[in-house]
Design goal:
- This is Cytochrome bd-I ubiquinol oxidase subunit 2 apoprotein.
- By secondary structure, this protein is mainly α.
- The protein has a single domain, classed as Formate dehydrogenase/DMSO reductase fold (Up-down Bundle), CATH 1.20.1630.
- Helix content is about 80%, strand content about 0%.
- It is built from 15 helices and 2 strands.
- It has a two-stranded antiparallel ribbon with strand order 1-2.
- Helix 10 runs antiparallel to helix 12.
- The longest helix is centred in the middle third of the chain and has 31 residues.
- The model has no long low-confidence stretch (mean pLDDT about 90).
């Protein structure tokens, strides 16, 4: 029987809970970057479409999903705060301007489609369409800047590493967005969406190379950290996934392409987590075990997460099942 005394005595079932929560936090971040990532990518591609019907198709494709997908950003922030409060406090206090920028971009991305549909006036829709694109591009870019700064322990908001990681993440969202739009709106969207996806994949690989080059100079361990077997394996896997994505997208195997984009996203976040560990806040040298909360609340959080996260997963299974399949021309945002 589980009692308060037993929960305070040691980790639940003897599990390495600090490491498990470290992995869980980054898994939640990767889930957000993939699920909301294809929404961001669709918003970027929105700027390259020529007709109103094509733009309406993009809005209809992401309409049922984008606000639900943002739940994972809240879950990520909540998990970081609950499990590693010193890291949360340090990161968000150092980069509060970035946080406001990210929130502003997310607000703009959410508000713009609603306003876009309020009036069928060319000037009105052109302005809000541009706002939708701006929010869709700025959100992943600023998130990438934040992640890059977090990894190298930067105390300034704008750094070379952050800017390069921001570009890398933005391109990756376009990769996901092209696959998602091909899956949902193949009949209503031009073949150029496939071209945008393959071009973004090539750009993403180049950006990854640039990111690794800068990290080799910026990280304390330099090239030795990047040449570890785990990092080399993840990078090679990303290259293979990028090739598989391109082939699948050109063959209109949209679900396979989207799966490859998901794996690339989780792989990118895994590289960041692996390079950072055992630190959770490299700027202060705070380690995972040094920042974790005490045993009792950690055990209680673990029990709560084991009960709640499956419910969240079920919700998303129901959501995506209810709106599965290609959209029809009659559907609107």
């Amino acid at each position: 029987m589980i009692s308060v005394d037993s929960l305070a005595a040691g980790p639940l079932f003897g599990l390495p809970l600090p490491e498990l929560w470290f992995g869980l936090v980054f898994t939640m971040l990767a889930t957000f970057l993939f699920l909301d990532g294809f929404d961001f990518g669709a918003g970027a591609i929105f700027a390259l479409l020529e007709t109103d019907d094509e733009r309406e198709t993009v809005l209809a494709a992401i309409g049922p999903f984008w606000d639900g997908n943002e739940v994972w950003l809240v879950v990520f922030g909540g998990a970081l705060f609950a499990a590693f409060p010193p890291a949360y406090a340090g990161l968000f206090s150092r980069h509060y301007l970035l946080m406001f920028g990210i929130l502003g971009a997310l607000i703009l991305r959410g508000l713009a489609p609603e306003m876009y549909e309020q009036r069928h006036d060319a000037a009105w829709q052109r302005w809000w369409g541009r706002a939708f694109v701006a929010g869709s591009v700025l959100a992943p870019f600023l998130l990438g800047v934040f992640a890059g700064n977090w990894l190298v322990g930067a105390t300034r908001s704008l750094t070379l590493v952050g800017l390069i990681v921001g570009v890398t993440l933005t391109l990756l969202t376009v990769v996901s967005g092209a696959a998602f739009l091909q899956l949902k709106g193949r009949a209503q969207l031009p073949d150029s969406v496939t071209t945008y996806g393959t071009a973004a994949t090539a750009g993403y690989l180049l950006a990854v190379v640039a990111t690794l080059g800068v990290l080799g100079i910026r990280l304390p361990d330099g090239l030795s950290a990047l040449l570890s077997p785990a990092i080399v394996a993840l990078v090679m896997l990303s290259i293979g996934l990028a090739v598989g994505y391109t082939v699948a997208l050109r063959r209109e195997q949209s679900l396979r392409a989207l799966g490859a984009a998901a794996a690339m996203t989780y792989g990118l976040v895994a590289v960041v987590a692996r390079l950072m560990y055992p630190a959770i806040d490299p700027a202060t040298g705070t380690t995972v075990r040094g920042a974790i909360v005490s045993t009792l609340p950690l055990n209680l959080m673990t029990i709560g997460a084991s009960l709640l996260l499956p419910l969240v997963a079920v919700y998303f299974v129901v959501l995506y099942s209810a709106f599965s399949g290609p959209i029809t021309p009659e559907e609107a945002y």
